[in-house]
Specification:
It is a single-pass membrane protein. This protein is of the alpha+beta class. It contains three helices and 18 strands.
Length: 311
């Protein structure tokens, strides 16, 4: 009897080998689950940090584009039929925005006189203009864009002799002089994709100023941008300020929708430039993260913004 009780007490005093092994297995499972949870949490945080960085990059780029769009004036956006690799034009994959800096001069040409393929314009004061400037001629209700090739600054005055002149050999103009014609200093800012100068396998969002040779403030806006898309909002009824807007991928499509009196390009005889009718522009940017995700891929994100233009 005593022997049986002694044996029972010994079994109760400690763990059997099986119990120890089971306990160790449970501890191992719990540690594995905890490790997996920590690893999953760290990966999630890394993904979120990577996405946040991509979002910030896209938002900063959209903010800069929106600032230029809100400053757009006159033609609003510039377009040309010959749209080369880096040309200043507006379509679904790039946009050229026309802004003014406040500098202007009155045109000194006699009202009513016609001009054809003219390479120079008499003005009242050429002192604020420089060779290479981009300018807009507002002649009545018509806008014409010109690149100033030489400034003849002599004696300011609308009737001075010799006269003040702005020469624009590469962008000649035609029309009929209005009683109130002005030339404004302008800037063309074109947003488009270009090859990443540091990594040819990637693309960047690039801001290019000027019509010909790149001007000041030309450079990379954001790295890691893989796509830019642009839509142009024009009213169903251009004569109604509150008309519903319809967005088109190109100015050609917008002009076609508004009818045969509209043109996708400025200075088309007998047509109205549809760029003047644009009331809003929508821009979407797609970007990729600089760092790889845990699965070895890059995070891809698209953000868009619609900007109402100044009327």
């Amino acid at each position: 009897m005593r022997s049986a009780l002694s044996s029972t007490n010994k079994r109760r005093a400690g763990f059997t080998l099986v119990e120890i092994l089971v306990a160790l297995a449970i501890v191992g499972i719990l540690m594995a689950l905890a490790t997996q949870a920590i690893s999953s949490s760290l990966q999630h945080k890394r993904r979120e940090d990577t996405r946040l960085s991509t979002q910030q990059n896209l938002r900063a780029a959209l903010t800069l584009i929106a600032q230029d769009l809100r400053s757009a004036a006159g033609l609003h956006v510039w377009n040309q039929s010959s749209c080369g690799a880096s040309a200043a034009c507006s379509n679904h994959t790039r946009v050229s925005i026309v802004t003014l800096d406040g500098t202007s001069t009155r045109v000194a040409e006699p009202p009513g006189n016609s001009f054809t393929n003219s390479a120079e314009t008499r003005v009242c004061d050429a002192s604020e203009f420089q060779d290479g400037d981009t300018a807009i001629l507002l002649n009545g209700s018509e806008y014409q864009l010109m690149q100033i090739t030489h400034v003849h600054h002599r004696t300011p005055g609308c009737n001075s002799s010799p006269p003040e002149k702005l020469q624009h050999n590469t962008t000649r103009i035609s029309g009929l002089w209005s009683p109130a014609a002005y030339i404004f200093k302008a800037q063309i800012a074109t947003y488009l994709l270009q090859t990443d100068p540091l990594d040819p396998s990637q693309t960047v969002l690039f801001r290019r100023t000027g019509l010909g040779t790149p001007g000041a403030q030309t450079g990379v806006v954001a790295f890691g941008i893989s796509r830019i898309q642009v839509w142009y909002g024009v009213p169903l009824n251009p004569s109604d300020p509150s008309s519903q807007l319809v967005f088109y991928e190109t100015l050609d499509a917008a002009a076609s929708a508004l009818g045969g009196t509209y043109s996708a390009y400025p200075n088309v005889p007998g047509s109205r430039y549809v760029g003047n009718e644009i009331r809003a522009i929508r821009v979407a940017l797609t970007g990729q993260s600089a760092e790889l995700l845990p699965n070895g891929a890059r995070d891809t994100l698209t953000l868009s913004q619609t900007v109402d233009l100044r009327r």
